[in-house]
């Protein structure tokens, strides 16, 4: 629909089983997102796909005092999108946290995404991807703060749950901020 956009957050190899920072069952969202992508393409809804695009010495890595093992390092197989994710030819790739000293969980963090969406007349965004309690959460909250109507596609995201319940808390935080948390919108 006019005014809508689909945002796919960080469905990269390193966040899927076998990756450096794998989200449990992360790969299960790929077929669901593929249905959303196909529907978006059919309706001429723009698709944006964010990715962590870290240099090898990124500030979020444990070697630099950050919380995470090295992951999604630029131009490595781990940084590539999941091989079964069917992104359209006209997808807009949003790279984030791509310099050594800057971290960003949000697809809106220093990427110009809000401006791109506004230029296209986007008012409502649908968000799915990895991980529910980190990058998806941050992206949804930033989209709300930027004035977009946000719909989180719950069945198209999975949490890390570093602490039990982190995923559920992220959903509640998005809901409290004004986001629409779609229980199980099948596509």
In a nutshell, what does this entry contain?
The chain is 25% helix and 20% strand.
Spatial order of the strands forming the largest sheet: 3-2-1-4-5-6
Sheet having the most strands:
6 strands, parallel
**Could you give the distance between the termini?**
16 Å
Beta-strand content bin: 15-25%
Give the CATH topology: Rossmann fold
Which spans of ≥5 residues are poorly predicted at pLDDT below 50?
none
Q: Provide the CATH superfamily.
A: Isochorismatase-like
Shape: globular
Q: Please trace the helix and strand order, writing H or E for each element.
A: EHEEHEHEHE
Number of domains: 1
Query: Averaging pLDDT over every residue, what do you get?
Result: 95
Structure overview:
The protein contains four helices and six strands; from the N terminus they run E-H-E-E-H-E-H-E-H-E. The chain has 187 residues and is α/β, with parallel strands linked by helices. The chain has one domain: Isochorismatase-like (Rossmann fold, 3-Layer(aba) Sandwich). It is globular. It starts with a strand and ends in a 5-residue tail after the last strand.
SSE topology sketch:
Blueprint lengths: L3 E6 L19 H14 L4 E6 L39 E5 L16 H7 L4 E7 L1 H14 L3 E10 L7 H11 L3 E3 L5
Parallel strand pairs: 1-2, 1-4, 2-3, 4-5, 5-6
Helix pairs in contact: 3-4
